[in-house]
Amino acid sequence: MQSNRFKLSKTKIISGEIFSILDDVHIKTEAMKKTIFFIAFALFTLSIYAQSFVGAWETYYTAEDGSKLKSVVIFTDKYQVITTYDASTGKFIGTNGGTWKLDSKTMTETVEFDSVNPERVGSEVSFEVFINGNTMGIVGDKNTFTRIDDGSPGKLEGAWLMSGRVRDGETQQRDTSGPRKTMKILSGKRFQWIAYNTETKQFMGTGGGNYTTEDGIYTENIEFFSRDDSRVGASLKFDFNLVDGNWHHKGFSSQGAPLHEIWSLRE
To answer: What is the C-alpha separation between 148 and 150, in angstroms, rounded?
Structure first.
């Protein structure tokens, strides 16, 4: 009997240990499930915010007169520009841009130029935005933008300021810290130059379209040109190379004059 009681007691102890182990396994399993869920949720959240606005985006819509308009926005890390023009003729409608930053879902832009409402220069505007894969837009706005590129494949993505010229072999530097600027913004496939003055709020001109960089040749295909609609459709080729981080741009202007420009990345 003592032996049986011992066996029974030992069995109870072993059974208790088994249940204890099972309880421990259950607790650890639940904790692991919670950890996995938290990691999955965190990765999902990060994947949303990891999506970048950098690159070029486009949207189409119909104007009151029935014409089809196209708007293209280019984002670099710190600068942006949006331009609207007639999708069929290339007739320039308007452009604005400047710096931008993102705080959670709120985008804030500081206006450096605005061809339609120059009084906005120097002001800040904020709005809630969304991005979902290749689609982005402003929350509450029916128009959405479709991604053109993500900053590649072009070799000149960024915001550049005209910083000098080479004439007769002599380099002439240009102060880029002043209010009068000529800026060129490029994504991986799109380009746009803008001439403006942040002090006087004057807009002086712009042009843009798509571009390629292949074998040291930079090619611009013009889709809009504020000063002369007849330039739309033109294709211009230039030699390009990067020297000490500066873009040397050599060839002929749209008027056929030789040029050698130097562009520096904006900080």
So the answer is: 7
